[in-house]
Amino acid sequence: MRVAGDPVLRQKARKVKKIDASIHKLIDDMIDTMHAAPGVGLAAPQIGVPLRVAVIEIPEQDVIVLINPEIVRRSGGRPVEEGCLSVPGYMAEITRSQSVTVKALGRDGKPIRIKSEDDLLAQALEHETDHLNGVLYIDHLESMDQLVKLEPQESASETGERERGL
Fold this sequence. Notes:
Layout lengths: L20 H16 L4 E3 L9 E4 L7 E12 L2 E7 L2 E10 L2 E7 L5 E7 L2 H13 L15 E2 L6 H4 L7
Antiparallel strand pairs: 1-2, 2-3, 3-6, 4-5, 5-8, 6-7
């Protein structure tokens, strides 16, 4: 897992030109890594691959694979608590869009469009797309003083979804 300070996290990821066996292997590796973390989402740059590929798995839903995702509409704003697998041990309250619409290619190469409003999926869509543009959630903070250090003894049951990185 690449962490803040690694230059690959600050690069704008390249578009996937062809969905072939190597992309399918990348997707499988990303899903395994996301599950092991555990996280809600993962972008390819987080594992050192500068390609526009992201995976998201919201509890009780199937994994969403996004190839070359692009936010085509966003509106409103709402405060959310956010963490990131690439900024381990911290979280902060930031503002994310109320409603987010993303267009992308699915794993099968067919166009998909996902609209989500006021939920974890909307937050994850924005968070993972940010990663593909070289942006980390901490870039949305006015000051690094807003970061909250998570206590190592806090368990996932105590902190709930907050501890799961996006």
